[in-house]
Amino acid sequence: MTPPEAPEDGTATQGIKPPAVSVCLEVLKNRSEFLAASRARKQGTKAMMVQARKRRSDEAADPDAIRVGFTCSKKVGNAVARNRAKRRLREVARAVLPAKGKPGWDYVLIGRATETSVRPFEVLKGDLMYALKKLHTDRP
Question: Where are the transmembrane segments (predicted)?
Fold first, then answer.
């Protein structure tokens, strides 16, 4: 059985990524990285809270990488509900951040209790794009 993204006739050209392959983002894992983002800019939307900060060049192996973290509190629900919300946030980040995120920035996406898991996916993408636009505009 071939994967769904493989061509039906089996003729894949060498060196071209199949459509199911997405751009890899670096994932924040340490508590200190999440805390640093929490002290930076924040923008809330109906479906999520987005925290963003410009990283110092000495903080990461690749200074131009876009790094992202995901979190949901117990207010979102049980473990199943939190994991579903985080899966949706990860997919939205894969779809939006490579195009709209800025290299050298850290982003933390925080799920909301009732909205993150039930909001339509296209609207969820729009929420993230709106938050990024607001976060990257210079404030007085």
Answer: none
Structurally, the chain folds into a number of domains equal to 1
pTM for this predicted structure:
0.79
Burial code of 16-54, b = ≥16 C-beta within 10 A, e = fewer? Answer: eeeeeeeeebeebeeeebbebbeebbbbebebbbbbbbe
Asked if residue 2 belongs to a domain, the reply is no
Rounded CA gap, 19 and 16, in Å?
Answer: 9
Q: How far apart are CA 53 and CA 60, in angstroms?
A: 13
Is 14 within the bounds of a domain? no
- pLDDT tens for 34-78 read 999 899 999 999 999 999 999 887 776 777 889 999 999 999 999
Question: What does the alpha-carbon distance between residue 11 and residue 127 come to, in Å, rounded to a whole number?
Answer: 38
Domain region containing 66: 26-136
Kindly state whether residue 46 falls inside one of the protein's structural domains: yes
Cβ atoms of residues 68 and 55 within 8 Å: no
Distance CA(132)–CA(41), nearest Å, equals 10
